[in-house]
Amino acid sequence: MSAAERVRELRAEIDRHNYQYYILDAPLIPDAEFDRLFRELQALEAEHPELASLDSPTRRVGAAPLPEFKPVAHRTPMLSLNNAFSDAEVEAFDRRVREGLETVGDIEYSAEPKFDGLAVGLVYENGILVCGATRGDGSTGEEVTPNLRTVSSIPLHLRGAGWPSLLEVRGEVLMFRSDFDRLNTRQREKGDKEFVNPRNAAAGSLRQLDSRITASRSLRFFAYGVGVAEAGELPARHSDLLNLLAGWGLPVAIERRCVRGVGGLLAYYAEIGGKRASLPYDIDGVVYKLDDLAAQERLGFVSRAPRFAIAHKFPAEEALTQVLAIDIQVGRTGALTPVARLAPVFVGGVTVTNATLHNEDEVRRKDVHIGDTVIVRRAGDVIPEVVRVLPEKRPILAPEFIMPKACPVCGSQVVRAQDESVARCSGGLYCPAQRKQALLHFASRRAMDIEGLGDKLVEQLVDSNLVRTPADLYRMGLMALIDLERFAEKSANNLLLAIEHSKQTTLARFIYALGIRNVGEATAKDLARHFGSLDRLLAANEAQLMQVSDVGPVVAQCLRQFFDEPHNLEVIEQLRASGVVWSEGEALPIAGSAVAGKVFVLTGTLPSLTREAAKELIEASGGKVSGSVSKKTDFVVAGAEAGSKLEKAQALGVAVIDETQLLDLLQQNIKGETQ
Ligand code: IVH
User: Count of CB atoms within 10 A of residue 369's CB?
Assistant: First the structure.
C-alpha cells in the first residue's frame, strides 16, 4: 500500500472513531488503540509533507500562536433570545406565536437544552471546515478557526453528502463538568489560577492565541441551528434540520424533542430540570423554537431577538450575598464543619441562608472572612457552597475564621490529627451531637451486644432525654421506659434484661464499645491482651501504646486524646460504677529482645515521629538514646536532612536505619514476648 493510500485510510478510520465517540457516544476501540492510529498518521504526514491536508485529524493538536484574533463579519447576525422565567411568561410567548400565525390549535415546537457555554459559527465550504468564529457583538466576531479545529467533536469535514455548498452551523462550545474538574486540579497542581465555572473555562480556553493550549483543554461542541445555507435544500422543520446535522457528523443534544402546545413545553421544562444535575454539562434553561421554519420566517424578529423562539431559564444557581458569621456544626462522628451563615439569598430556586465551608483548610484556601461578599452556588439538590470571595468588597473589619479549641456542643477538647483536614470533638461518649451514633455503636453486637437496642429505639431514648450517655442505659427504670410512646411492658422488660445481661463483658469488648477513632475490634483485642487491665491502658503514654502490635502513632494519638478528655473518663467511671465488669489479667511483660539494652542516636527529621516521641518509644522498650555517635552506638536512626552524625556512623560502620525500620524493631519486641 502506498503512503498516500495508508494516509487516506488512517484519516477515514480516525474520523470514524471520532464520530463513534463524540456523536454516537459508542466508542469501538480503546483509547490506546486510537492513539496508536493517530501517531501512525502523524509519523506518515511528517515523512511525506506533500500529503498534508487542512482537514486531517492531526490538525487538531493546535498550531503556532497568532499575534491577534482577526475580526469576522457574520453573514447573518448572531442574535440572542428573549427569556421567560415563569409558566405565565411561557404561556404569553405561546399566545403571541399563535396570534402572529393566526392559528387556533396547538403549535409544534422543537425543545432543546440551553447550553451554558459560548456561541460560535462554523463555516463549511463544500463540506470542509474553513472558518470558525465567536459571536462577538452579534454582527462581528473573532476568528478562532485554529482553536475550533482542536475541538474533537467538531468535524473537520462533513460526513455523507447533500450539504449546501456553503453552510454555517451555529452552536455552543462548552466544557463537560468532569473535564472542568480535571482542568482545575491540574491548574491547582501547577499553581495556576483556577476557573470559576465550566463556562468561564470554556471561554478562556477558546480565546487563546496559542491553539495548542486550546487543544489541551477538552472542549465540546453542540450544534443548535444553521446561520447560512447557500445552494442546497434544507428541510422544512427545525427538528429535521437538527437530525440532518447529526447525520453530517455534527453533535446535537440527544435531549432535543418535538412537543405540542404550552403543556408540552412545560412538561419538557420539568423533565430536563429533573435531569439537569445528571447531564455531563451545565445548562441554564431550555429553548423552545417554532418547529416550522417557514412560519419562523413569517414571525421574524423584534429588535435583536426572534419572535419564534424563547429561552425558559432555570432559577440562577449562583448569587451574591454576604457572610454574616461562620458557625461550627458538629456531626454524628464528631467532625467539626465550619458553616457560613449568609444574608438570605434566592438561588437555585430556594432561599439559602447558609453554605458549607467543609473544613478549616477550605476556609483558608477560599480566604473567607466574616463580612465578605461571596458568590454562593446551589445546583440541584446539592448543599449550597461558597464558590469564591469578592476581595474588592471586603469591609475594613472582616475577622478571620478561627477553629474553636473546645467543642461548641459539649465543651470537650477539639483535636486535629496530623495529615487530616478534619477537626474533631474528642468527647465521643459524652457529646450530644455524637450521642445517637455512640449509643448505637456501644450497643452493637460485637461491642456490648445489647439485643434489641437498634436505630429507632436509640432515637426514642435520646429524643425523650432518657439517655444521654451509654452510662444512662444502666440507670433506666421500667416505668420510664413504659412511658415512652408505643413501648409495651413486655418489650421494656426484654430491653432491661438485655442491658442487664450486657454488664458481664470482656475488656476487649468494652474498649471496642467506647467507639474510639481508629480503634476497631482487632486493635481492642490487642490492647486488652497487652495491658490486661483498663487502668493500665488508661495510664499508658503514646510510646507505651505503640508497643502494642499494629498500634502506630496515629492510633496511639487517638487513644490518648480520647482518654485525656475528662468527659469520657467520667462516663467510663459511671459505667464501672453501674456494674459493667470483665475479668482482668496480667500485663504482658516487656521482653525486649531487639531494642533492650541497645544504644540509639537520632538524627535528621523523621517522617511522622518527633525526636521526643522516638526517644520515649525506645526508652519504653528498654533502649537508650545518646546524643553522639561512637563505637558503642548500635543504631543511628536517620531522617531527612541528616548531617554529620550520619557521616560519622558511616565512617564507623554503625548500622543506619530509618523510621520504618525503627518501628519494626520495636514491634519485634512484642512478637518476641507473645510467642
Ligand atoms: S438558538 C436566534 N438554541 O443562547 C436565536 N441558542 O440567548 C439563536 N444557546 O447566544 C439561538 N443553547 O449561545 C439557541 N439550544 C440553543 C441554545 C442557544 C444555548 C445560547 C446561544 C445564544 C444565547 C441566546
Answer: 18
